[in-house]
Structures are given as structure tokens and as C-alpha cells.
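Board notes (copied after class):
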Amino acid sequence: MDKDEALAICFANLKGTKDKNLIATAKALQFLKSLPDYDSNEKVGNAVGVSGETVREFLTLLRLPSSIQDLFEQRQLRSLEKGRRLWQLARHRPELVEETAKAISKLSAWDSRHVIDYILRNPNVAVDEAVKAVMESKTIVENEYYVVAILSEEQYRLLSEEARKQKLAIDVLVTSIVQHWLESNSHAR
């Protein structure tokens, strides 16, 4: 792989196509990071139009076992979120990563996240029990809404540091901040 090929892979998979090749993108990002001009996640991210945090998340895919990487290459696992969550599981419960990866391959990223969170909170539960518990709890009482927050790089860095301190995912931290603010302000009315 050379610089031009790596950049082409990144642009094709980060900016356009719906069916992204996450492992090829991760390998291209890793190659770019090995070059003297792109020796940090931030520099690589700037070169391809994503944040340094996104580069870091892609690189974690390459730290997963090769059997899990194969599932990404075969498009059985299709989201960066699933990769990030599987890496989280690998750090705490490595013996369950392969079984969990296969179990979440047909689930949405949202359900996969909840399955992995359930496994991490309940260390004695089997993967199939976690999937069953999450799927049975999916009675939707009210709609859920997703909001995009536009932050400066400095604001995102501060948020990321706070999430690390609290050992939370950034989206979980942001959700809790917004919910707390809404609860505080609803009592003032």
C-alpha cells in the first residue's frame, strides 16, 4: 500500500459508499499513521476529513481478534459502533468476544450496544441470556430521538476526557448531561 492508495481507500469508505469496508479503512488509516507526515490520529483525521477520535475507533478494529476482523470483512458486522463495543468487551471479558460478535451480527448497533452493556454489568450471564434479556426489554413506550451536537475540537476533547474519567462512552455522557439539564429545567417551569 502507498500513500495515494491509502487516501483513496479512506475517502471511498469515509465519505461516500453505504457499504463501507471498515477493516480496509482501518488498515489504510494505520498505514497513513505510520508515515512521518501523519504520526498522530489528529493528523491522519485532518488529512481524510474525520476527527482523531474516529481514527482511534477505526484503529481499535485492528486490535480485535482476527476472527472478529473476518466478520467485518465478510460484512457480517457492519458498524464502527459494534467494533468499538466489541473492543470494550474484549478488554473486560475477552472469553466472550467471539460468541458475542456472532450473536450481535444480526442485531442493530443500538441492540448490540445494549447486549454488550448487559454482559458487562452482569458478569455471570451467558451471551444468549443477554441477547434474550435485551430483546425482551424492547417494549417501546415512547419514541426515542437522536440529536446531533456540533462541537469545536476543544469542546469535543474536553467531553472525551470527561467520558474517559467517568469510564463512559461519549454518547452516554452527553445523553446523561442533556437528561439532567432537562430534568433540572422542567422543575423550574
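Comment from the instructor: The mean pLDDT is 89. The chain has eleven helices and no strands.
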